[in-house]
């Protein structure tokens, strides 16, 4: 009992460290088993009895193929298993009664097989009219990047915009600066309706829901 021991604090600390490490002393390590293994011991390498795995005759034999290890169906209800006769079947397990079985869900999955999508398949072409006939760039507003609505032409550089977009842009600018050519003092009243876009837009290439020019 260190609390009642008549010793210095340093000696008590050393004794405490020694006691705490006592269980980890190498003298307590498990020693290698000597002699023949128990009758119920099976080598995990070759599956035979009579020797430990470290003494297996197949050690170092590159041509040796280890037998398939069959898992036990511990924890899986018998009603969830399907008995099979072939122990080499994929996913097979050993039941408590010594029968070979496969979980029902695995058996169904193996029966269906894995269906993978072949690589490099061409993408499905969309039936959308936008993808088949994209809207030309000249019909898109330079501000909102959408199909122009009530298209108007700005006199300074001749570009076309939505009427609402360009008017809002000029009114919000202190010097009424054109968003494209940066010319100042461009009056919103100077905007000109773009009659060409109103009369010559190809309706077959633009979705009806967007055709609001």
Automatic annotation (TrEMBL):
Residues 43-57 form the CCHC-type domain. GO terms for molecular function: nucleic acid binding; ubiquitin protein ligase activity; zinc ion binding. Keywords: Metal-binding, Zinc, Zinc-finger. Residues 141-182 form the RING-type domain. GO terms for cellular component: nucleus. It comes from the Eukaryota. Signal peptide: none annotated. InterPro entries: RBBP6, Ubox_domain, Zn_knuckle_CX2CX3GHX4C, Znf_CCHC, Znf_CCHC_sf, Znf_RING, Znf_RING/FYVE/PHD. GO terms for biological process: mRNA processing; protein ubiquitination; ubiquitin-dependent protein catabolic process. SUPFAM superfamilies: Retrovirus zinc finger-like domains, RING/U-box. PANTHER family: CELL DIVISION CYCLE AND APOPTOSIS REGULATOR PROTEIN 1-RELATED (PTHR15439:SF0), RETINOBLASTOMA-BINDING PROTEIN 6 (PTHR15439). This is RBBP6 ligase. It comes from Sinocyclocheilus anshuiensis.
């Amino acid at each position: 009992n260190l609390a009642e021991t008549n010793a210095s604090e340093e000696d008590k600390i050393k004794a405490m460290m020694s006691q705490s490490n006592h269980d980890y002393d190498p003298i307590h390590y498990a020693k290698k088993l000597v002699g023949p293994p128990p009758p119920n011991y099976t080598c995990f390498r070759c599956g035979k009895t009579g020797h430990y795995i470290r003494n297996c005759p197949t050690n170092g034999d590159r041509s040796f193929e280890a037998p398939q290890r069959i898992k036990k169906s511990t924890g899986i209800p018998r009603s969830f298993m399907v008995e099979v006769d072939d122990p080499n079947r994929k996913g097979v397990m050993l039941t408590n009664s010594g029968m070979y079985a496969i979980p029902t869900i695995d058996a169904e999955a193996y029966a269906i097989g894995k269906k993978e999508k072949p690589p490099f398949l061409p993408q499905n072409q969309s039936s959308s009219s936008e993808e088949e006939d994209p809207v030309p760039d000249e019909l898109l507003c330079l501000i909102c990047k959408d199909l122009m609505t009530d298209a108007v032409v700005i006199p300074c550089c001749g570009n076309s915009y939505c009427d609402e977009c360009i008017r809002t842009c000029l009114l919000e600018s202190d010097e009424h600066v054109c968003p494209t050519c940066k010319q100042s003092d461009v009056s919103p009243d100077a905007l000109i309706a773009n009659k060409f876009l109103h009369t010559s837009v190809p309706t077959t290439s633009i979705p009806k829901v967007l055709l609001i020019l």
